[in-house]
Give the backbone structure.
Amino acid sequence: MSIGPAAKVIEARTGSRLEKVLRAGHFAVTAEIGPPKGADGRRIQDLAFLLRDCSDAQNLTDNQTAVVRLCSLAAAVHVLHSGGEPVLQMTTRDRNRIALQSDLLGAASLGVRNVLCLSGDHQRFGNHPEAKGVFDLDSVQLTATVRRMREERLFMCGEEIKVPPRVFVGAVENPFAGPVELRVLRLGKKVMAGAEFIQTQVVYDVEGFARWMAAVRAAGWHKKTFILAGVTPPRSAGALRYMSRIPGMRVPEELIRRMEKASNKPREGQRIALEIIDQVRAIAGVSGIHIMAINWEEAVPEIVSMAGLYPRPRPN
Amino acid sequence: MILARPKTVSSILPLVWGMKSLVVAGCQECVTVCQAGGRKEVSCVAQLLEIAGKKRGFLFTIAQVTVFRQCDNEYLAPLDALLKKADACISLGCGVGVQFIAERHPAVMVIPGVDTVGGGGTVIPGVWEERCAMCGECILAETAAICPMTRCAKGLLNGPCGGSVDGRCEAGPDLPCAWEMIYQRLRKQGRLESLTRIRPPKNWAHSGSGAMRKVIREEVMPCLSVQPLK
């Protein structure tokens, strides 16, 4: 399959609100919704209702940490029903190229306008560690596939698509995993494959993130894609410590100590999130934030408002 | 070589319970090297079966034979006479050996005595590691001769996932991240540009996901005009 470089400067073309916000030069805010471990659409609709005004788009995770949950596609439709703007997360762990392309067509037909391409956490972490990991494609190949379907109107096999999926294409990057040079090379690959926006792993180590961003700017990738820094307000010291043990996460020890000492922990967590938002906003090349308030979505509207990012722009 | 891990005799026993005459068949190739199915292991399995039978007041007649190569029909002849009289054959060869014996003796129940793991080698005595997934489409030239199909837990083709930290794989702290190894080696070789190339999706039709694979090479086939001796 052919893979061409993506350009950031093109006019918005997918009907995605997130795309319009970013291309209009606004500092974007996205928020994460983790679908429940049950057939509970109501919970997602409530969360979408809570988040739709304080964020430009809402990510629906795809069986995150390889735990079975309500599927991201159905969750995205619940968000649409609540007047939200879903970002459909798609991992290559559970579905092959046939299922991924098919789900993408289905999602676009239902009005989903944003897709985030990931490989997904290894099944060993989840609640079905005996499962066969599919990984027919990797995240770079999935990104290229979605762009090809949208722009060239072709399936991977080369057959024509009559009505292509008009979706804004994103990918993820972890600034803290391994050598910076390798992470930037990998980011470049995703951009070349067609990633129009990048959501990063949660940033607690702002210095490490700034080093990575400096390397990203040196390579010029920030001009070809929109980079949204991941932010997770910690609710407790225990939550921070738990996150510090997740592969690919880096949590400075002094941050954990600061939370331990705080008398009002949620308030302190909110303060930490606000400080991080201010700091990453000041870094050149950062186009927005992606708030992952895991099991603490209620905190998001206030954080966005206190960060001076509310109300959200509503470009046409 | 093909790596294999011995099955426990207690898992084999229920399959042969009530039978009288057994053959335990070893192989002198890969399974001898990884100490799962050579002459020594054949003797162990045979004796353990005998003891287990005796404890339950049962007497097996067990023949032991280790052929040069179970995956080659020509070398299976030493089994013929023994298998004519046997109720079952426990093959300590890899999955190929088990099936080749069964194809030659379709009336006999052939039981695998090992679990075949994959293509690998000896790292230190007692430790064997997988290196080849037998995907049928080798890309080692592009990945500094480190196989991401076996050594990356997700089989990624375009670099590491976000879960690799300090050179370790997210799927296990004792596993090195294949893509960080590839990066380090390419760097030493001055070939980092190889990491900027987007590798297209793999053609799994060449792998075990396709139909049964077959290698046909006419140039090494015996001359067809010559009839084999009867």
In short: The longest strand of chain B covers residues 114-124. The two ends of chain B are 34 Å apart (CA to CA). The longest helix of chain B spans residues 39-55. Chain B is about 25% helix and 20% strand.
